[in-house]
Design goal:
The protein is mainly beta and about 375 residues long. The protein has 4 helices and 20 strands. β12 and β13 form a beta hairpin. It starts with 10 loop residues before the first helix and ends in a 62-residue tail after the last strand. The structure holds 2-acetamido-2-deoxy-beta-D-glucopyranose (4 copies).
Length: about 375
Amino acid sequence: MLLSQAVGALPWLLLALSRSSNAACECGYSLNKTSDESYAVFTELQENDFLHTSTKTLTDYGWKPQVYNVTSKNARGPFGKNMELRNVITNPLKDSNSWSGDAEHGGDAGLELWVRGDHQDGLVDGAEIQSRRDDALLGTFRVGMKMSNSSGTCGAFFYYHNNSQEIDMEFLSHQFNESQGFVNLVLQTPESVVHGYDASGTAAFSVQRLPFRPDEKFHEYRFDWTKERVAFYVDGTFLYEMTDNVPTEGGSMFFNHWSNGDPKWSAGPPEKDTVMTVSYMKSYFNSTDTERSQNAYKKRCPNYDPAKVCAIPTQMSAPDPSGGKDAAKTYFFTQEKDMTPGQILYANAATVFGAPALSIVVPALVALWALTS
Ligand SMILES: *[C@@H]1O[C@H](CO)[C@@H](O)[C@H](O)[C@H]1NC(C)=O
Ligand SMILES: *[C@@H]1O[C@H](CO)[C@@H](O)[C@H](O)[C@H]1NC(C)=O
Ligand SMILES: *[C@@H]1O[C@H](CO)[C@@H](O)[C@H](O)[C@H]1NC(C)=O
Ligand SMILES: *[C@@H]1O[C@H](CO)[C@@H](O)[C@H](O)[C@H]1NC(C)=O
């Protein structure tokens, strides 16, 4: 398939202008407009603008860096994995008012997940983060990211409930060549558990060709998870969908970047340090937490009114600074005034307007997580 190469016409700008002034998303955020033939409404949001985030405490921004290691046996490869805090680094743009230009520590601006080249101890050092929120059930999940340009790592963005309820977009850097790349789309299902956690022999696995190298530019990778299907998109263009074994439980979002040297999957490990960079993350979802889905939602939206639902803008171009000064500028409800009533907001939300950020509940902890995903 061909992805649209169309340069985005800032559709969100039109949307913002046409929205009536008192609509403030009280009744949620929609995939498609509520006037379209089919649409879905989600009550919750989490957005992270990593081009403008500088912190040593990612938990303040809604993400828990994972710290754990697994032996080569448990990692099912010639090397073990060692997920470390030091491999998760924020690297914002130097100019906080800009959407392009130099990054604070050089390289690409964004949240960096490093895989290290030194693996003499039999472990490959990598990086993983998990969202603090673990109550996402159905939603649309979108990330701007640029993958490693060293052969031999796996970079992934996924939803996880357990080993049979998982939605992954996984990038194997050894699959990239001069002109193209691939994304591995996976639903971990009860069937893949039976196959020893290997989904590759099941219907819920598809390798899709991309007409570009994922290590050359930032692109938006997205999945829309509704009851009926999981639909995958790249830069706003439909790529593939899966309709069987659609997950039914709430979970967290994850990013990770790792290698275990398995020639059939990550390959590698790389001989030098290599990075995957996330420029943003945007989740619009429903919650399994009845306090959120019932009480908080009913309070701000006592009577459902489609005029109080905000359509989520579609990013139709690669959000990469090489496309022009504002090409990496994408729409965030959290950077607009009054568009996030009653939402759980983290530290960077609405700083543009100086609105106070609500903080929540869970204390900032670095979680131990023996996940072998
Ligand atoms: C949104 O519209 C597109 C295009 O018509 C359609 O394929 C998709 O299923 C719709 N999404 C939802 C959640 O209804
Ligand atoms: C999400 O929750 C809201 C409120 O309960 C509901 O109206 C909406 O249909 C749900 N969305 C989906 C896709 O099920
Ligand atoms: C995952 O969770 C579902 C729902 O709670 C459960 O039915 C299933 O057995 C779990 N799978 C694994 C591998 O634990
Ligand atoms: C890149 O890989 C694809 C698929 O394996 C192949 O068809 C294509 O010829 C390769 N291109 C180059 C320049 O190696």
